[in-house]
Amino acid sequence: MMKKVVIIVVLMLLSIIITTTLSMSVSSTTTDTVAAVTYDERALLINGKRRVLISGSIHYPRSTPEMWPDLIQKSKEGGLDVIETYVFWNLHEPVRNQFDFQGRSDLVKFIKLVGEAGLYLHLRIGPYVCAEWNYGGFPLWLHFIPGIQFRTDNQPFKMEMQRFTTKIVQLMKQEKLYASQGGPIILSQIENEYGNIQSGYGSAAKSYINWSASMATSLDTGVPWVMCQQADAPDPIINTCNGFYCDQFTPNSNKKPKMWTENWSGWFLSFGGAVPHRPVEDLAFAVARFFQRGGTFQNYYMYHGGTNFGRSTGGPFIATSYDYDAPIDEYGLVRQPKWGHLKDLHKAIKLCEEALIATDPTSTSLGSNLEAHVYKTNSGVCAAFLANVGTQSDATVSFNGNSYHLPAWSVSILPDCKTVVFNTAKVNSQVVNAKLTSHSLEETSDSSGAFSSGWSWVDEPVGISKSNAITKPGLLEQINTTADVSDYLWYSLSTQIQGTEPFLKEGTKPVIHVESLGHALHAFINGKLAGDAERIIHV
């Protein structure tokens, strides 16, 4: 006869808190005087002059205020003109009508530091931001407003969205941070990648987008507004592209410039997953192709990724590191050769600016997978981009009577239509191999579990061993149950096997089959861990 055993299966569901579904400055960059920011079919205009602008994302709460000046300075030295950041609603209004703009939440301080460095700023208010951030940036209390439906033509949601957006705009105006007031903000964004999911909202999606655009422009910021991944963005909102490659993107009006708000410099890290890496040769190729084919505003997402402090990370198994393989790494150190190669690229693009802003390019085929784009003004200013979009073979091409070697998957930049000053596949910047050393935290801990280094740990009881365990039939709505005090919701089931059950044959052992792993599963026999498994999530 088999011994009596008690089998406990503990199923864990992670709270996936996202709501739906990555020394060169221009002398005219200044934030000391009032600037008129407009746009036409070629570019953004600052005080009536078209500009080629290179931007990079730095999210202020993903680094510390002590790091901000150095991050901004390194961005400027890397050739950026603009810093781009989201505004995180749940960070600033964790409790309804109680606002926090201190410490890592000091948005005003961050923007002023950007301005003091002589750079511009793109303020992406959202207020839905995604960004692998907890609940997509929405505060938890928003979830519990009666009758609310997020990101659709729903009056309770629109009231709260307008109230917060207005709060941020008024704060920026109060601090005189818009370019129209002499500040660094030259662009604002409303909503975020809504076009990717709007089909699920039916006809209400279009009315919501139109309302969002009208609401934003009514706030009279004096600078243009954009919507990313929103092909039907109504005038005067500029629709922009997000992705690894945006050279083939076309805005929805021939009166709007070609803009790229998210060029993914890498990708976010998932626990248990490989560390993402995007080769700088590919990243530089994508940037050069964008400007080759008519773009004039490009932003790296991210230029510095930083850290998901506390429980700010959102999404399935997103790690605390938000390094993103960015040109400036999680710790604020320049990542070579990525930072240096892109700096050289930016210099080459800026040498072409006069031609780029003057006219649209003319394109010529130089052979299979080979092409030239030429910008030439009536005064004779000329810049050319030669591209080999084939991935396998190098090529030699003839252009303007000269011969040029083009490595596979590369772009050469000729600011005078004659001399190659940069090729995206040829990396000349230094390579630095950083070495991280590990240190055992346990060796520095005392009996209380506190570390002399300032670190500490918490033992979180699993499943039915918790004091606040409850008994309910079926699955529960996770946020309603946890109120976001924990990322985890454990479901526990126990059963007793006597050994005399009719389905058991003499000498056989019971087998338990679980239909779903949730996100992770632990099985215990007589109180001892017998096995575990996790669900593989592809993101």
TrEMBL record:
Domain named Glycoside hydrolase 35 catalytic: residues: 44-348
Beta-galactosidase beta-sandwich domain: residues covered: 371-427
Domain of life: Eukaryota
SUPFAM superfamilies: (Trans)glycosidases, Galactose-binding domain-like
First-level EC class: hydrolase
UniProt family annotation: Belongs to the glycosyl hydrolase 35 family.
A Pfam family this chain is assigned to: Glyco_hydro_35
Catalytic activity entry: Hydrolysis of terminal non-reducing beta-D-galactose residues in beta-D-galactosides
GO molecular function: beta-galactosidase activity
Taxonomic path: Eukaryota, Viridiplantae, Streptophyta, Embryophyta, Tracheophyta
Signal peptide residues on this chain, from the entry's feature table: 1-23
Segments forming a coiled coil: none
Keywords noted in UniProt: Glycosidase, Hydrolase, Signal
EC number: 3.2.1.23
InterPro entries from the UniProt entry: Galactose-bd-like_sf, GH, GHD, Gly_Hdrlase_35_cat, Glyco_hydro_35_CS, Glycoside_Hdrlase_35
Protein's GO biological process: carbohydrate metabolic process
Protein name per Swiss-Prot or TrEMBL: beta-galactosidase
